[in-house]
Specification:
The protein is 84% helix and 0% strand. The chain is mainly alpha-helical. The protein folds into two domains: 125 residues, Ferritin (Up-down Bundle), CATH 1.20.1260.10; 155 residues, no CATH class.
């Protein structure tokens, strides 16, 4: 079959995508805990390899897999969990399906492959059953409260104390106490609702809070005493980065809109920081404290 140059390049891209997916699904399958999920991924891996061979029959050209993508997805599996990886793979399948539909007029076999890709998508969705997703609400509670409360605290004391180590000390005391308080409050709230997962829920809330506290305090611990302005700027950038990454994770695993949630959380956290800064400066001059 004579292919147009555009479709020839597309098929080469499909080949790379298929062989990469085949190897990736096989490697992810080994990491799966449930045997059902593992079997499904191994089956999909085999089908993807068959797709690669079909595309190769058009180009007569071997393509190397994207080893960087394979490494990255395997690494992210341990950090973000199987739901994030599966949803990401699902997005890739959906993108490839649109391109397959575009070339179906010239290459009829593309329609068959497109239908199989859609089947894969449905199989992937049916696999999703991850414990941590049940506690997304608890993680949101801990993360959001830490961002708002600690960002406000740090902003308030940074220009009042003008010393990175003093600010870090105040933040550690506040953050440590607030972590325990948030975990205990979430536990009591869950117990009041007669939840059987009160302990796990409180742990997820406390861990999300604690990790956020550690990240936000780090600039103040690492920089010299007089670099409190630099530490404050870095802290604000970390706040935005945390909000971005967390909302991206939620958008993927829950198939939700990203930008509205990101903007909302960023505006609230940075708005509280701005108000706390004014409060800290005002309190310093009102009390006549000079440090």
């Amino acid at each position: 079959m004579t292919l147009s140059q555009k479709n020839y390049k597309r098929i080469l891209k499909f080949q790379k995508s298929e062989i990469t997916a085949s190897i990736l699904y096989k490697k992810i399958a080994v990491l799966m805990h449930e045997s059902k999920n593992k079997d499904v991924l191994l089956e999909i891996s085999q089908v993807e390899n068959e797709h690669y061979k079909r595309w190769r029959s058009f180009t007569n050209h071997d393509i190397k897999p994207d080893y960087l993508k394979i490494f990255l997805y395997r690494f992210l599996f341990f950090i973000l969990g199987e739901t994030f990886i599966i949803k990401s793979l699902e997005r890739n399948e959906e993108f490839d399906k649109k391109e397959l539909d575009d070339i179906a007029a010239e290459i009829p076999i593309a329609r068959e492959i497109s239908d199989q890709e859609e089947k894969h998508e449905n199989q992937l969705i049916s696999m999703i059953n991850e414990e941590r997703l049940k506690y997304v609400g608890s993680m949101v509670l801990g993360l959001n409260d830490a961002l708002v409360e600690l960002t406000g605290t740090i902003a308030g004391v940074t220009f009042a104390l003008t010393n990175t180590k003093l600010v870090a000390l105040a933040a550690i005391i506040t953050g440590g106490a607030a972590t325990l308080s948030m975990a205990a409050s979430n536990y009591l709230a869950q117990r009041a609702n007669q939840s059987e997962d009160a302990v796990k829920s409180s742990v997820y809330t406390g861990m999300a809070y604690l990790i956020t506290v550690i990240i936000l305090i780090m600039p103040y611990l690492l920089l010299p005493d007089e670099y409190y302005v630099t530490a404050f700027v870095i802290m604000l950038l970390l706040v935005v980065l945390i909000i971005y990454l967390f909302n991206f994770y939620i958008a993927v695993v829950q198939t939700a809109a990203f930008w509205p949630k990101f903007v909302e959380m960023a505006v609230i956290s940075l708005g509280v920081a701005a108000l706390s800064y004014v409060l800290g400066i005002g309190a310093k001059y009102l009390l006549g404290i000079e440090i």
